[in-house]
Amino acid sequence: MARGISPTRRLVESLSTYAVLVLVVMQTIYPLLWVLFGSLKSKSEMLNNIWGPPLSLHFENYVQAWKTAGMDSRILNSVVVTASALALVVLVATPCAYAITRLRFPGRNALLALIVASMLVPPQVMTIPLFTVASDLGLINSRLGVALIYAASVMPLSVFILRGFLLTLPVELEDAARMDGANRLDILLLIMLPLIRPGIALVTIFAFIEIWNDFFLAFLLLRDPAVQTIPLGLVSFFQQYDSLWNLYFAALMITTLPVIILFTLMQRQFVAGLTAGAVKA
Length: 281
Prior knowledge:
Layout: H1 7-39, H2 43-48, H3 60-68, H4 71-102, H5 108-118, H6 127-136, H7 143-167, H8 171-179, H9 184-195, H10 197-212, H11 216-221, H12 230-240, H13 245-265, H14 267-276
Helix pairs in contact: 1-13, 3-13, 4-7, 4-10, 5-7, 7-10, 10-14, 12-13
């Protein structure tokens, strides 16, 4: 009869596992804590105590960073751009994913292959044609125009994720609804949409982080300071006040706070979305 695992070996394996997990958590959390610590230090303490926690808390750094970096207008611009782009993504990606998953039409597989292939193209490759088209359409220095481009950039991944969720739902649900007289729009809005809420939450979080933190497209298309978003403001702030690291870290924390709040509010849907959509096509 095979001998069981000894208690000593089991203890060593458990301690090793927890040690690795603690290391990964510290590697993930400490950069955020470092920025938080730096945002609460004075300028002199920031230079003398770089890595440790602050000896005294300077919450006035956030007020100074808000005023110096002009965070009010830039946050408003980021909110308008991000909210508009997210609304477009959800409104367009959901029926598109439903059509690709449930409808049978010529070229469906080719369209799906095109969507997957478009996710492999980095935006830097399309810099010149994107700027040319945006200029011709009058989308330069336009918050809604940039939101449209952002929505288009995250649309392929959103459609692909939502398609995975729709594949997990049985077709019998639609058949039963159709027998009760429901049309395609009713089935999508009243039956499918509530069932794929974790997928929509997953798409929303991914798209929000991508758009809120993006610098490349904003730098390319938003040249007027009145319509610039937070990432551009942070770069401008750092270029002008490169010695005020404590204020710069405070501005970073203000920028990061909406992402943390969104993830905290939607973490249950996010975790459910990571597992529920894992289906083989």
